[in-house]
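ugh ok fine here u go
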Amino acid sequence: MAEVDLTNTTVRVAVRVRPFSEKELREGGTECVEVGKDGTVSLQQDEDKDPSQFAFDHVFGKDSTQPFVFEMLGMPLLDKSFEGYNSTIFAYGQTGSGKTHTMMSDRKSDDRGLIPRISENLFERIAKLTSDSRKFLVCCSFLEIYNEIVYDLLVPRGKNTPKTGLEIREGKGIGVYVKDLQEIVVDSSEKLQKLIDQGFEHRATAATQMNASSSRSHCLFIIKMHQKDDRVASNNNFSKMNLVDLAGSERASRTGAQGDTLKEGANINKSLSALGNVINTLSSMAAGDKKVFIPYRNSKLTRVLQESLGGNALTTMMAAVSPSKTNCDETLSTLNYAKRAKTIKVNASKNEEAEHLAKLEEEVEALRSKLAEHAAGNADTSRYQSQIEEMERFRRQTWEDKERDSQKHEEQRKALEKEAQKIAERANEEQRRRLKLLEDSGDLEQTVQELRSLDGGDEFNCWSSQIAAILRAEQRVSAECRAVALCKDAAMHDIDAWCERQSSEQSDSGAGGRMLLQQAERKVSSMLRELDALSKQETELEAAVALLLPQVRRAAKLTRGRNDDTENAKNQTEEYCHILSLAVRQLDTHRCSIWGKICEEHKALGDFSEKLDGLLGCCRDLGADIQKLDAETKEELGKAISSGSVALGAEVCGAAASPLGLASEELPDARIKASSNAEAASCVRLFGGVERVNSTFGGWVPSGKSKEYLQIDLPESLWISGLALQGRQPVSGDYKQSRPLFEKVLSASEPIPPERLFRRPPVRLVHDVFITVHGKCKELQGEVFTPAQMDYEQLSKLDRQSKVHFFELLLSRTTEALSMAGWLEKIRPLTLSASDILAGKNTGETNRLIQLLCYLALRKKMGQKSATGLLNLADQWVKKFKVDWSEDGKSWTSSDAEFTGCEDAEQVRYQSLWALHPSKPVRFLRIKPVEWHEEPGLRLEVFGFASRDLKGSGSQRLHVIRRRSLLLQRCLGLASNAEDERWRKAQKAEEEKSLQALAEKSHVEQQLHDAMKELKKMRKAGHAFEKKVAESDAEKLRLQVELERAETQVKAFEAKFEVSTEGASDAKKLLAAMEEKMREMQSSTEDLQQQIGVLTDERDCARATEEELFDLLNDKEEEIMNTNQGYVNLTEQLHEEREEFEEKLDERDQIHETLNHRNQELLDETMRLRKELSDLRKRPTSAVRPASAMRPASAAKSDRLKDALPAILLGGAPMMKPSS
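structure:
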C-alpha cells in the first residue's frame, strides 16, 4: 500500500464483481460489467450507447480470491492500526451482491472473508511484537442496527433487553460511542472467532427471492487495540478498527418481501438513504462548499459511522456489484454511490495515549464548570453529574479494570449459557419423558391430543374424530362377531339335536324333528344377516383405518422436509417428527391389533365342515338328492387344504395392507403414467401430495372420455387390497395450489413469489398476477385499465377510492372473461370484494381469484384446447370405475365388475379390491373411469402388501364362513324338505288305513266322519301352535342377542370403570403432591385471569383497529414519500437561494469598492482645491483685483468652491450661491 497523506486523504474505494448466481443464469441474464486492468469498471447499460466508465482504487473481477482481497484491503488497514490510526472497512451493495461473502463468508474454511482473516493476522502480529517492554490489549464489540434499533450481538436478546435498544453518545476525547455496549478482552484469534460466531448466531437474517440468507440488519464488528511500550514512547497509542457489513439495498418488487421482511427492507433502505445523503454532503464539502450541514443524526447507521465518514479514521469502501444485466440499474446506483464516496476527505490523526487523557481531563473540567454554574442557579444537575462520572470512568479505567470487567462479563455469559443449557436439557428430558409415556401407553387418541397441543397443531383436529370413528367401528365389529357367534351356537345346538334324533329314531317322522329343522333354518338365516352386518362393519372399519393412514404418513413426510432457520423452529419440528413417527407406529400397531383380534373371533366361529358332512349324511338317509350339493361342499372344503391357494379377506388386508406412497410421495412420479394429460399425472396424489407442485391442477383428468386410464407401476409384485379415491378441485382456494399454478403461467426466467405470500395474498401479489394475465396474455378484454393502474408504483400512490375502483373493475372483467370462456356457470361464484383484497381478508376467495386468473392465462398458453379436461374448472369426480391388473405390464387381466367411486369432489372414498383380485400378486394397476361427474377427474392412494405379509388360513376369512353358512342353509333346506316329504307320506298312509277301517265299519261312519273333521281342526290348530312356538323361539333368540349385546356394553363399561379406578388411584397419589403446588398457584391464577381479561380486551381492540392501521400505514407511506420528495425540492431550492444570495453579496462588494474608489477621487479633488485656495490667498490684493476683472468667470468659480468646501468636508451637500 502506498504511503497515505494522513493530513488530507480521501476515502479509498474498491469494487468487487461477483460471479453469476443460479437465479441470474435461470433468468437468462447477460454480462454488462467489464473490469479493466487499470482500476476501471465499464457498465454497458444500453447496446446503442457507449458504456459508463468508472475509476477506483481497486477493482476485483469475478475470479478474485479472498486472500487477494485481504492482501489489498485488509493488510493496509492492519498496518495503520498498529501505527495508532483508526480505520474502517464497510461493504455496500444491493442485496445478494456478495457483501457478507467478502466480509465474512464461511468463517471456518479457506474461503473466509476479511473479518476472520484480519482477526487471525492481528494476533499473529501481536505475538511477534510482544516483549517484556511492549504489551497489547485487544477488546472487541459486536453490534447490529435492526429496524433502526441498536442491539449488542454479544448479549443474548431476552425479556430484559430494552425495546429502544442501546443509546448512542458522543464525548470529547472519546468520539461517538454506544453506551453499555459490551467490550470483551480477547487474547487469541480462537476466542475472537468464537465471539464472531456467537454474534452471527444472533444476527437477523431472512430468505427473499434475491437471497436465501439475506441480512436484515447492519452489523459492526469493533476491534480496539491499546499498546504500551516502556522503551519507545511513540508506541503508547491505541486504535480502533470498524469492520462493517451493511444490509443490501433492495426493491420489494424483486425480493417479494412482505410483512416483517417488508418492514425490515424499508428500514434498511431508509438508513442507506441517510448514508447516501451524508456521502453527498461530504462530497459537496470536498468540492469546496464549506457551508453545508451534515445530517449524521438522521439515522443510527450514520451516527455510529460518524467518525469513519470524514472524521478521525482511514476509511475503505468495498462496493459489491452483480455482473448481470437484470441488475443493471442497481449496479449503476452502487457505482455512482462509490464514485461520490471516493471524493470524501478524511482527517485521520494518530491516537496517542497522553493526548487522549488530556482531552478527557479537559472535557471533565468543562463539565464541572457547567455543573457549578447550574448548581448556583438551583437547576437540575443530574445530567452533568452522570456525564462527569462516565468521563471519569473512561479516564481512570486501566487495563486491569478492562480485563476484570471482561472476565466478569464472561462469567455471567457462561452462567447464562449454562442456565440456558440446563433449561434446554430439562425441556428435552421432559419431552423425552412425555414421548416415552405416550409410547408406553399406546393410546393413539392421547398422541393426537399431544399433537394438537403444540403450536400450529390445529391442522390435526380432524384426526381425533377419525380415531374416534375407528374405535366406534371396532366396538361395532366386536359386538357383531359376538352376535354371529350366538346365532351360530344356537343353530348348531338345534342341528345336533336333530341329527341325534335321526340316529336314534330312524322311523320317527313326527313334528318334533320338523320343528328342530325349522328352528335351525331360521337361526342360520339370522346368522347370515348378522354376517352381512358384520361384513359391512368390517368394511367401514377397513375404510376408516385406510383413510387415516395416508394422512398421518403424509404429515410425517411433510414435517421431515421442513427447512427451519431458527433454533426454536428446528426444535419444534423435531418434536413434531417424534410425535408423528410415534403416531404412525401406534396406528400400525393398533391396526394389526384390531384385525388380529377380529381374526381370532372369526376363528372361534369354526368352519362347519363336520356339521356339513353330518347333515349331508342325514339327508342321504332321508332319500334327498344331494349329489350337486355334495359336490359343491367337497369343492368348498377342498379349498382350505389346497397347497397353492391364497385366501385374501378383510382381515388380511386390514392387518397387512398399507399405503404404497402416492400421498406421501414415496412412489416417484416416474411410476405414474396416464393415457393423456401426462403433465398432470403427478397431481393424482391423494390430498395433493407433499410437494406443492403436485397440487397444481387439483388432480388428474384425461383429455378424452373413452379408453382413458391411469396406470400405477408398483415397485414390486404386490397384493392390492383397495383404493382411496378423491375428486378433482381445479379451483379450491387453497393457498398451496395457487403458487404452483402461478408458476405454470410464468416463464422460466421470471421470479416466483414465496409460498408464504399466498397465505394472505397482499395487494402487490394480486396486481402481479393481474399484470401477468392481462399485460402478457391479454385475457381480460377491453382497454379499460389506465397506465396508472397497470403500474403498481403509480397505483400504490393513489387514494383508497381509486384502488377500490381498480379492484372492482378487475373483479368485473374477470367475471366477463370467465363467462366468455364458458366457465362461469360451472364454478361457485366469487364472494370477494375490493375491500377484502385491500384489507387482506377472505384469503380463500382471494386465492380463488388468483387461481381463476391463472387458468385464464393457461387457456391461452396451453394452445387451442377444448374446455374439457384440465381447463374444465368445475368440480369433478369419478362415480364408477374398473380396474385392470398385470404382472408384466403387457398382458392385462380385466374385471367386468364396476367399483363405486366418490359422491363429490372433496369426499375421500375407500373401495376394497381384494374380493376380485387375481390369484397372484400384480406389478401394474390401471384405473379406468366408467361414469363421472363433469369430467373423470380424480386423486387416489393405492393400498397393498407383499406375499410375505400374508398370515392365517383361509378358514378364518369372513367371506369363507359366509359361503359355508350358505351351504349349511341349503343342507337344512334339503333336510327340511325330505322330512316334510316323509311326514306327508306317513300321513297319507295313515289316512288310507282310516278309510279302510271306515269301509269295514259302516255303522260308525258318521262318528268317524265327525272325528275326521275334528281331527282336521286339531291339525290346523297344531300347525298354528307350531308356528307360534317357532315364532316365540325366534323372538327368544332375538332377545338373547339383544341381551348379549347389552352384556357386552356392560362389560365394556366395567372395563373402562376399572381403568378409570386405576387412574383415579394414581391421580390420588399425584394429587397429594400437587396440592402444595395448587396452593402456590392459586393466588397467581387470579392475577393471571385478570391479566388475561385485560389482554383479551386489548386483543379485541387491536383486531378492531387492524384494518384502520393497515390503511393508515399505506397513507403514511405515501405521505413519507411525498415528504421526502418535498425535502429534496426544499434542499434544491435552498441551494438556489444560497447561490442567489452569494451573487448579491458579490454585487454588494463591487458596489462598495466602487463607492470607495469614488470617495477617494473626491478626497483628492478636495485636497487639490484646498491647495488652489491657499495659493489664491497668498497672492497680493492688487494683483488679484485685475485678475478678477479680467477673469470674472474664474473668480466666480473660486467663490463657489470656497463656499462649497466646508459643506464637502462636513459630508453634507454643497450649497451653491447664485451668480449675480
